[in-house]
Amino acid sequence: MSRFYDPKDTHDLARVEEILKKGAIEYFLRGDSKYGNGLPEIHVAEEDVPKAEELLLHSARP
Asked: Residue 18's domain is classified under what CATH number?
């Protein structure tokens, strides 16, 4: 598993989890976010990183 995303807050965590679920990307929550907010980092399989990044980028478009 590769570290994929450090959520800034609970809303950000929920948003990214929803994107990954809709894209059928398996993920795990581990460790602590670099923001020191007590939230876990989001990890995905190394082979899923490109697709997960693409989904995240497309979700940010207006």
From this structure: 3.30.70
SS3 3: strand
16: alpha, beta or left, given left = phi > 0 and alpha = psi -120 to 50? alpha
Enter the tokens of residue 30. Answer: 């581990």
Residues contacting residue 27 through CB under 8 Å, at least 6 positions apart = 4, 17, 20, 42, 43, 44, 52
What is the mean pLDDT of the segment spanning 8-18? 95
Domain span including residue 25: 2-59
Number of domains the chain contains: 1
Residue 6 to residue 33: CA distance in whole angstroms: 5
Give the residue-averaged pLDDT of 51-59: 95
